Amino acid sequence: MKPLFSLLLAAxxxxxxxxxxxxxxxxxxxxxRLVVPFxxxxxxDLFARILSTKLGEQLGQTVIVDNKPGAGGAIGSDQVxxxxxxxxxxxxATTSTHxxxxxxxxxxxxxxxxxxxxxxHVGNAPSIMLVPNSSPARTVxxxxxxxxxxxxxxxxxxxxxxxxVHLTAExxxxxxxxxxVHIPYKGTALAIPDLAAGQLDVLFDSLPTGLPHVxxxxxxxxxxxxxxxxxxxxxxxxxxxxxPGFESSTWFGLYGPRALPPALVAxxxxxxxxxxxxxxxxxxxxxxxxxxxxxxxGQFAAMVAADLAKWKAVVVERxxxxx
Length: 323
Hints:
By secondary structure, the chain is an alpha/beta fold. Helix content is about 45%, strand content about 20%. It contains eleven helices and ten strands.
């Protein structure tokens, strides 16, 4: 019986293995769903629209953007975590969903490492330090000096407790040794009018949404939060030129569900890298203030791990909560 069982097992293996590899090789044979865990019209959604088109061209199949907002990105992320690992459901994740979210909300219905397969780091969007035109400060150094002269008198706006806008400001406070009052809003769009009116003193908005207000003369920009100057706004200094090592960017990355087959990961990663190298895509992303990235799944996973550790330290040290 033992030899017969071995023969049957070998035959089954020979029978099944080619079918699976053929399935991988044929991928994709139907449209792919790219879940965006935030509302339509925001930076993540706009990025997804560009990426989905170019990714679809590389894969030879339609990539459909599916907005599933709610709970800080947790609703859409949870859908992907529980989807079939067949390459037809992908997630466009961000710093908020996979670096900040798990630190601030340990009760998420998924594990951001265990329940997802990293595919590619597709972009970065630094933030921009905005002040009202009426502010006497015209440089980061002058703004820090102004704040130190009036401890507790100046404030900063955010898009809500625990958001990347909030954490960026707290990181700035910590590194500059400042005492500022936090005024949370339900989104930076609601804070912009008050900032322009001089009722707020500073806002670290994302470059894609903040830069147009500067270009149109409504606000003044003092610097960007990327480690070096960004080609999106080369005239602006990096805050790190004043505070060495200061850096805060929103990253964007492609994930699949847990246990996505390596062949499919490689296929999507290759397509994503080619999509990001497309001249038209790069030009359109530049207009959004997003810098295309790329690289291997391993490099993406390592970047997210380092980013999570960084923001966890800020959350713990500054005692930040969602309430």
